[in-house]
Specification:
- The complex is a heterodimer.
- By secondary structure, chain A is α+β, with helices and mostly antiparallel strands.
- In chain A, 52% of the residues lie in helices and 17% in strands.
- Chain A contains 23 helices and 21 strands.
- In chain A, strands 1, 2, 3, 4, 5, 6, 7 and 8 form an 8-stranded antiparallel beta sheet that branches. In chain A, strands 9-21-20-19-10-17-18 form a 7-stranded mixed beta sheet, with helices on both faces. Chain A has a 6-stranded antiparallel beta sheet with strand order 11-16-15-14-13-12, with helices on both faces.
- In chain A, a hairpin with a 7-residue loop joins strand 12 and strand 13.
- The radius of gyration of chain A is 35 Å and the shape is elongated.
- The mean pLDDT of chain A is 85.
- A two-stranded antiparallel ribbon of chain B has the order 1-2.
- Chain B starts with a helix and ends in a 5-residue tail after the last helix.
- The mean pLDDT of chain B is 92.
- Chain B has 18 helices and 4 strands.
- Helices cover 65% and strands 2% of the residues of chain B.
- Chain B has one domain.
- Chain B is mainly α.
- Classes of the chains: A alpha+beta, B mainly alpha.
- Chains A and B meet through helix 7, helix 21 and helix 23 of A and helix 13, helix 14, helix 16 and helix 18 of B.
C-alpha cells in the first residue's frame, strides 16, 4: 500500500468513525463537545417546529461541529490503529519449539499463546521468536523490523547487554535458546498494541487539569448565555418595545457554542493521540502518556557513558615515538603485535596503522610467529618471531606502562624519561597509553582513547538550549571522565559510578526539584531507570532495563531524548496554544453576535439601536452574522486538525522566546483571525445568495 | 479638567505609590522574625497568655480554615444579636429600636465579609454601641481575617514538603496589633483634628435660619471612619458615607481618606513579594494593578468631563459635594471600587455612564485592582494561577507557580474561586430583573436601571459595598439575596485560596532551568492583564452592553435616564 492510499484509507475510516462517535455514550466523555451535541439536538428540534431556514442552517452546522470534532479524534486514532493492526499480524499463530527438559534438546511444538513464564524455547533461522525472553545460549542475527521498522538485522547473544529478544521478531541465522520472561498477554507486543489502541483512555495529569479549566469555562458560558434573556427581556420592557431583541433558543445556543472552547475541546484528544503516534514514528515506545508529558519537563539527563556517549570501546588515535624511532617503524611493530588480537582495542591499532601508513597486515599471525595472548598475569600481549626450531628470536610486546617497564627492565632495558612523560600526559588527558616494545627497547606509545560518537556534541548543545543539563555517568576514574566529559560537551559527570551511586544521584537531583531522565541499557541501570521520572531503555538492552524504563527506544539511539522531549513539549504547547486561541476567538464572536441580538434595543423612529454601532464587521444581517460565527467556529476545528496532529512547532530556546511566538500567533492571532474569517464567510454567503 | 485637578491627581498617586513599598516592607517585617515594633511585643505575649493561644502551633489548611470560619461565625452572630437587642442595650441615646431581622442579617453578613454594604442609614438605625462594638470591631476582624489568608497563601508558596500554613490566631493578633490599630489610632486623631465628630453625646437639634428644626446626628464617628478606610471596609457611620461633612469635612481629610483606602492594599503587594522571596513578582503584580487603576481613572475622568461638555453644562455636579469637586469625586469612585472599599464621597448614581462602567468593571474583575486588605492579593493570585497555567502549557512545561507544580487539585480550586463571584453576579442580577417585585425596586428606568441591579450584585459579590443607589434595597428580597451573595463570594474565594495554599505547601519546589517561565517582567504582566480582562470581559460584556454602554450611546443621542 503506498502512502497516499494508506492516508486516504485512514481518512475514509475517520469519516465513518466520526458518525459512529455520535452515540451519546461517546459524546458524554467530552463535556465541552457534549454541550454542542445537546445544542445540535435542541436546535434540530427548533428547526422542526418553526420551519425556519435559519434554525435549519444552524442545526446543520452544529452537527458539523460535532462531526468535525469526532473526525479529528477518529483521524488521530486511525493512524495508531493502522500501526496496531500491522503489529497484530506479526503475532498471529506463532508456533514455539519448547524444550522439554532443561539441558535437553528434544522439543515439542506448542502454540505461542500457551507458553508459560520460564519456559525455554529453541529458535533457529527462519523461526519467529514466540514471546519476549532472554537468550540463554547461542548467538543469532534477528530481524526486528516488525517492531522497529528497521530492516537491518541485529545481533542477539547470551550474556551481556544484548540478550533480550522480543516476541514477533524473526531469527535470520544461527540458533538460540530463549527463556521466556513475559507472562501471557503481557509481552512487549501486547503492551505496544494496547498502548496504541488505548491512547485516548489514559488521561495525563496536564490533560486532566486543562479539562477542568475547559469544563468550568463552559459552565460559566452556560450561565452567561442563559442569564442573557433576563437582561434582554428587562431591556425590552424598559424600552417599551417588546420583541426588539433576538433571543430565540436557536440564537442563544449558537452564541453558547461559539463561546465555549470547542476548538480545543474538539481537538484535545487528537493532540494527545497525535503526540503518541509521532513518538511511535520516531521509533520510541512510550509505555505511558504520563511519561511523554513528563519528558517535556526534563531538565537533567543522566547518560551511561559506554555505548551512549562513546562508541563503547577505546580506540587507537595516535602513535607517539620514543627518541630515535620513526613513526612508521612504531606503527609496523604495533600492528604486528595486534594482528592476532581480536579485542576492539587491538583491531583499532591495526586500522590506525593501515590508515596512517597503508600497512596492510596479513590475516592472523605471520609464519614463524607465535601469538602471545593477553594474560591478566603479565598484562601484555604480543608476538614472538621464531626461528625454524620454534625458538623466539624477537619478541614484540604491547601493554600497560608498568607492565612493559617491568618487562624491559628484566632484560636490562631502560625506559626513557621522554616516553614516561608522554605516557603520563596521555593518562592525564583521559586517554590510555599502551607501550610498544621490541625486545628490551621501548619503541613508543599507542594512544588509546574513548571515542566520542560523531555529532554528539552538537546534540548536547541542542539539549542545553532546550534547558536540559546533561550528566555523564561512568565507571572511569575522575581524570578520564573529565576528559571525555569535556570532549563530548556534557555539563557534568559522575566518575567511578556504581549502580548505587547512579540511584543516589537521581534521588539527590529529584530532591532538589529536578525532573530527571535516565538513559541506559544494562541490567545495572534498571534501578536508576525505574527511579528516574523518564527512563529510556535502549531496545538493544537487557530485558530488565526494558521493564524498568517507561519508554523504550527501538533504535537504541541515546540522543533520541531530544525528540522525546520535543514531542512532550509540543503536546503541552499545542494544548495551551489552542486553549488561548479558543478564548481569544470569543472576542470577535461577541462582536458578531451581540449586535445581531441587541442591535435594535432602545431603537427609536426606525433608527438603529445604540448597540448596533458594535457591528464593526458590518455583517450582512443579524442572521447571517450568527450563521457566519457558527460556521467559522465549526470549520476552524477542521482547519486545525493538521496542527493538532503535527503539534505546534518547537524551537529550542528560553521559555520567553517560545512564549512570545505562541502568544503572537495564537493569542493575538486568535483575536484577529475570527474577525477576518467571519467577515469572509458573511461575504461568501451573500455572494452565493444565501440571505436570511 | 483644570490644571490643579491634574496636579492633585498626580500628587495623590505619587504619595500612594511612594508610600506603598515602605509600608509593604513594614508589613512583611511584622510577619518575619525580627519585628519592627519591639515595644508592642509584650502586649502580644500578654494577649496570647490571656486567651491561651499557642501562637507557635502550626495549622494545616483545614485547621486554619476552621479557625477562620469559627471567628467569622461568632462575628456574624454577635453583630446580628447586637442589632436585634440594641433597644435593651446601653449607648443608645436616640433610643433606637431593635433592627428588623432580615436587615440585621444583611448588615451582619455585610460587615463580617468586609463588604460593608449598607441597606440602612447609620444615624437612623444603629445605636452607638452597635456601631462601636459590632461594626467597628468587625471592620478590624474582617480585614485581619483576609490578611491572615494572604499570609497563609504566601507560606504555602514558600514552604516545601510541609502542610503547615502558620497560626491564624497569631496572624490576626499581629495584623491588628502592629498594622491596623496603630494606623487607625493616628488616622482617627488626624480626622478628629479635621473636624470629624467623636462623641457619645446624643444628636443635637438646632433651629436653622430657615426657621425650622434640624436634627444633627453625632456619634463616635472618627474611630470608625479610620478603620473603615484603612481596612477597605467602607461602611459609613452616617448614611451618605464620606459625602457627609462629619465624616469627611475638609480637602485634607478627603485626600487622607482616599489615601487610606488604597494604602494597605497597595503596600501588601510589596509585602507579599517579600514574604514569598520574590520581590520581582510582587512588583509585576503591583504594575498590573497600578496600570488598570490609572487607565480606569483616566477613562472615568475623561468621560465625566466630556459628558458634561456634551450635555452643555460646565460640570456634572448632581450628586457631588461642592467642596469636593468633580476630579476628587471621580478619583474616589475609581479608588473605592478598585479597592474593595465601597465608601463614597458622592453619589455614583449621578455619574456619567462610562464612569459608572469603570467602577462596576473594577468590582467585576473580582476586586483585584489592589482590592481589599489581604483579599486583593489572594484574589489576584487566582488570576495569576490561571495565567501561569496557560503560559506553562504554551512554553511546553507542566505549569508551575513560583516553582510549585499546578495540578488538577489546584486548578479545580482556582476555577471555583474565579467562577463563584462571576456566577453569583450573573445569576443574582438575572433573578432580580426577572422577579417583578424585585425589579420594582428600580427607581430609574432604561439601561440605568439594569446598571443599578448589576452594580448591587457586583458590589455584594466583590465584597465592595458601594451602591449605585437608585435602587430600594431594604426589601426582604435584596436583604436576603445580597447577604447570601456576600457570604458565598467571600468564603467561595477564601476557601479555595486556603485549599490551594495547603496543597502548594505540601509540594516540593521544581528547580529552575532555561525552560522555566519567570512570573515577572513586562511579558508576564501583559499576559496577566490580558487574562484578567478577558475573563471579566467575556463574562460581563453582554450585561455591560445592555447597561452602561447602551446608556452612554443613548445619552450621546440625547436620551437620559
Amino acid at each position: 500500500m503506498n502512502k497516499t492510499e494508506k492516508s486516504s484509507g485512514v481518512i475514509r475510516g475517520a469519516i465513518a468513525g466520526a458518525f459512529v462517535k455520535l452515540s451519546p455514550r461517546e459524546q458524554i466523555k467530552n463535556p465541552v463537545m457534549f454541550v454542542v451535541f445537546a445544542g445540535a439536538i435542541i436546535v434540530s428540534g427548533c428547526a422542526a417546529i418553526d420551519h425556519s431556514i435559519f434554525s435549519f442552517v444552524i442545526a446543520v452546522w452544529l452537527w458539523f461541529t460535532v462531526l468535525f470534532a469526532n473526525f479529528a479524534e477518529a483521524m488521530a486514532e486511525g493512524r495508531g490503529k493502522a500501526h496496531a493492526s500491522t503489529l497484530r499480524n506479526a503475532r498471529t499463530q506463532i508456533t514455539a519449539h519448547k524444550i522439554l527438559f532443561e539441558g535437553g534438546t528434544s522439543t515439542v511444538d506448542v502454540n505461542a499463546d500457551h507458553l508459560e513464564l520460564g519456559d525455554i524455547v529453541s529458535c533457529t533461522a527462519g523461526d519467529i521468536i514466540p514471546s519476549d525472553g532472554e537468550v540463554i545460549e547461542g548467538i543469532a542475527t534477528v530481524d526486528e523490523s516488525a517492531i522497529t521498522g528497521e530492516s537491518a538485522p541485529v545481533i542477539r547473544e547470551s550474556g551481556g547487554d544484548r540478550s533480550a529478544v522480543t516476541g514477533g521478531t524473526r531469527v535470520i541465522s544461527d540458533r538460540i535458546l530463549v527463556r521466556i520472561t513475559a507472562e501471557r498477554g503481557n509481552t512487549f507486543l501486547d503492551r505496544m498494541i494496547s498502548l496504541i489502541e488505548n491512547a485516548k483512555r489514559q488521561k495525563t495529569p496536564n490533560e486532566i487539569a486543562l479539562g477542568i479549566v475547559l469544563v468550568t469555562m463552559t459552565l460559566l458560558f452556560l450561565v452567561v448565555v442563559f442569564t442573557l434573556p433576563a437582561f434582554g427581556r428587562y431591556s425590552e420592557i424598559a424600552s417599551n418595545a417588546p420583541g426588539s431583541t433576538h433571543m430565540t433558543l436557536t440564537i442563544l445556543i449558537s452564541l453558547l457554542v461559539c463561546l465555549i472552547p470547542t476548538t480545543i475541546g474538539g481537538l484535545l484528544s487528537a493532540i494527545g493521540i497525535g503526540g503518541i503516534s509521532r513518538l511511535l514514528k520516531k521509533n520510541v515506545l512510550a509505555l505511558s502518556g504520563r511519561a511523554v508529558e513528563a519528558a517535556g519537563d526534563i531538565d537533567i539527563l543522566l547518560l551511561d557513558k559506554t555505548g551512549t556517549i562513546t562508541l563503547g570501546n577505546r580506540m587507537a588515535v595516535a602513535f607517539i615515538v620514543a627518541p630515535g624511532i620513526s613513526e612508521q617503524e612504531l606503527a609496523e611493530v604495533a600492528q604486528a603485535s595486534s594482528i592476532a588480537d581480536e579485542t576492539p582495542e587491538g583491531r583499532s591499532i591495526v586500522i590506525l596503522a593501515k590508515e596512517k601508513f597503508g600497512i596492510r597486515g596479513q590475516d592472523g599471525a605471520p609464519a614463524h610467529a607465535k601469538f602471545i595472548p593477553f594474560s591478566a598475569n603479565t598484562r601484555m600481549s604480543g608476538l614472538d618471531y621464531c626461528d625454524s626450531d620454534g625458538k623466539a628470536i624477537q619478541s614484540i610486546r604491547k601493554g600497560a606502562v608498568e607492565a612493559i617497564r617491568t618487562h624491559i627492565e628484566k632484560q636490562n632495558g631502560i625506559m626513557s624519561v621522554v616516553v614516561q612523560n608522554a605516557a603520563d600526559n596521555i593518562a592525564r588527558s583521559g586517554g590510555t597509553p599502551i607501550l610498544v616494545s621490541r625486545d628490551n627497547i621501548v619503541l613508543g606509545i599507542v594512544h588509546l582513547k574513548d571515542v566520542v560518537k560523531g555529532g554528539i556534541r552538537e546534540r548536547f548543545a541542542r539539549l542545553r538550549k532546550m534547558g536540559i543539563r546533561t550528566v555523564m555517568i561512568t565507571g572511569d576514574n575522575p581524570l578520564t571522565a573529565a576528559a571525555i566529559a569535556a570532549e563530548a560537551g556534557v555539563d557534568d559527570f559522575v566518575a567511578e559510578a556504581t549502580p548505587e551511586s547512579k540511584l543516589a544521584k537521581i534521588k539527590e537531583e529529584k530532591a532538589l526539584g529536578h525532573m530527571v531522565a535516565m538513559i541506559g541499557d544494562g541490567t545495572n541501570d534498571a534501578p536508576a531507570l525505574a527511579q528516574a521520572d523518564v527512563g529510556v531503555a535502549m531496545h538493544t538492552g537487557t530485558q530488565a532495563a526494558r521493564e524498568a524504563g517507561n519508554m523504550v527506544d527501538l533504535d537504541s539511539n541515546p540522543t533520541k531524548l531530544i525528540d522525546i522531549v520535543e514531542i512532550g513539549k509540543q503536546i503541552l504547547m499545542t494544548r495551551g496554544s489552542l486553549t488561548t486561541f479558543s478564548f481569544a476567538n470569543d472576542v470577535a464572536k461577541y462582536f458578531a453576535i451581540l449586535p445581531a441580538m441587541f442591535g435594535t434595543v432602545y431603537a427609536v423612529n426606525g433608527h438603529k439601536g445604540p448597540l448596533a454601532s458594535l457591528d464593526i464587521m458590518r455583517l450582512h444581517s443579524p442572521e447571517s452574522a450568527i450563521v457566519s460565527a457558527v460556521i467559522f467556529n465549526a470549520i476552524i476545528i477542521v482547519a486545525l486538525i493538521p496542527l493538532a496532529l503535527r503539534g505546534v512547532t518547537y524551537r529550542p530556546g528560553g521559555a520567553m522566546s517560545v512564549l512570545r511566538r505562541n502568544i503572537l500567533v495564537y493569542g493575538i492571532g486568535g483575536i484577529v483571525a475570527p474577525f477576518i474569517g467571519i467577515k469572509l464567510i458573511d461575504i461568501l454567503m451573500t455572494l452565493v445568495g444565501l440571505n436570511f | 479638567m483644570g490644571r490643579h485637578d491634574v496636579y492633585q491627581a498626580i500628587f495623590y498617586f505619587a504619595v500612594l505609590f511612594g508610600a506603598a513599598p515602605f509600608l509593604g516592607r513594614y508589613i512583611a517585617g511584622v510577619f518575619s522574625d525580627n519585628k519592627p515594633v519591639q515595644f508592642l511585643e509584650p502586649v502580644e505575649t500578654f494577649l496570647y497568655k490571656c486567651t491561651g493561644i499557642d501562637h507557635k502551633s502550626e495549622m494545616h489548611w483545614t485547621r486554619y480554615l476552621v479557625a477562620v470560619l469559627l471567628l467569622n461565625l461568632w462575628g456574624l452572630i454577635a453583630v446580628f444579636a447586637l442589632q436585634i437587642f440594641q433597644g435593651h442595650l446601653p449607648f443608645n441615646p436616640q433610643h433606637l429600636k431593635g433592627v428588623e431581622p432580615l436587615l440585621a442579617f444583611n448588615t451582619a453578613a455585610s460587615f463580617v465579609t468586609n463588604t460593608n454594604w449598607q441597606a440602612y442609614s447609620g444615624e437612623s438605625t444603629l445605636s452607638y454601641l452597635v456601631q462601636m462594638l459590632g461594626l467597628t470591631v468587625q471592620n478590624f476582624l474582617s480585614a485581619a481575617t483576609a490578611m491572615g489568608v494572604m499570609l497563609a497563601l504566601a507560606r504555602g508558596i514558600v514552604r516545601r514538603n510541609s502542610g503547615a500554613l502558620g497560626n491564624f490566631w497569631s496572624d490576626i493578633v499581629k495584623t491588628t496589633l502592629y498594622i491596623l490599630l496603630p494606623l487607625s489610632l493616628v488616622f482617627a486623631l488626624v480626622l478628629v483634628g479635621q473636624g470629624v465628630v467623636q462623641t457619645f453625646a446624643p444628636y443635637h437639634t438646632v433651629h436653622t435660619l430657615a426657621e425650622t428644626d434640624q436634627v444633627i446626628p453625632l456619634g463616635p464617628a472618627a474611630s470608625q471612619i479610620a478603620i473603615k478606610q484603612l481596612g477597605t471596609n467602607g461602611g459609613g457611620f452616617f448614611g451618605v458615607n464620606s459625602a457627609h461633612p462629619f465624616e469627611n469635612p475638609t480637602p485634607l481629610s478627603n485626600f487622607l481618606e482616599m489615601l487610606a483606602i488604597l494604602l494597605i492594599p497597595a503596600a501588601q503587594v510589596f509585602a507579599f513579594g517579600k514574604l514569598i522571596n520574590n520581590k520581582k513578582h510582587g512588583v509585576a503584580l503591583f504594575g498590573v494593578m497600578a496600570l488598570v487603576l490609572l487607565v480606569g481613572f483616566g477613562v472615568a475622568w475623561y468621560s465625566e468631563v466630556s459628558t458634561a461638555h456634551h450635555i452643555g453644562v460646565g460640570q456634572l455636579m448632581e450628586g457631588k459635594e461642592q467642596r469636593i469637586g468633580v476630579m476628587n469625586s471621580v478619583l474616589w469612585e475609581t479608588v473605592t471600587t478598585a479597592a474593595s472599599n465601597g465608601s463614597v464621597n458622592c453619589m455614583h448614581d449621578s455619574m456619567s455612564p462610562i464612569t459608572i462602567l469603570v467602577g462596576m468593571f473594577n468590582i467585576m474583575l473580582g476586586e483585584v485592582i489592589f482590592g481589599g486588605v489581604g483579599c486583593g492579593v489572594y484574589g489576584m493570585i487566582l488570576f495569576v494561577l490561571l495565567t501561569v497555567f496557560l503560559v506553562g502549557l504554551m512554553v511546553g512545561r507542566t505549569p508551575e507557580y513560583l516553582g510549585k507544580k499546578l495540578e488538577a487539585r489546584e486548578i479545580r480550586w482556582m476555577m471555583a474561586g474565579l467562577l463563584i463571584p462571576n456566577l453569583s453576579i450573573l445569576i443574582g442580577a438575572a433573578i432580580a430583573l426577572t422577579i417583578p417585585s424585585a425589579a420594582a425596586s428600580i427607581l430609574n428606568p432604561g439601561p440605568h436601571g439594569l446598571s443599578e441591579v448589576a452594580y448591587a450584585f457586583s458590589s455584594a459579590a466583590g465584597n465592595n459595598g458601594s451602591a449605585l443607589a437608585g435602587l430600594n434595597v431594604n426589601t426582604p428580597f435584596y436583604n436576603v439575596t445580597l447577604a447570601i451573595v456576600m457570604l458565598l463570594c467571600r468564603f467561595g474565594v477564601l476557601i479555595p485560596v486556603l485549599a490551594i495554599a495547603g496543597s502548594l505547601a505540601r509540594k516540593n519546589a521544581v528547580a529552575e532551568s532555561d525552560g522555566t517561565f519567570h512570573a515577572d517582567g513586562m511579558m508576564f504582566g501583559a499576559i496577566l492583564l490580558f487574562s484578567i480582562l478577558i475573563v471579566g470581559a467575556l463574562t460581563f460584556v453582554p450585561m455591560l452592553l445592555l447597561g452602561p454602554v447602551s446608556e452612554h450611546f443613548l445619552m450621546l443621542s440625547g436620551r437620559l435616564f
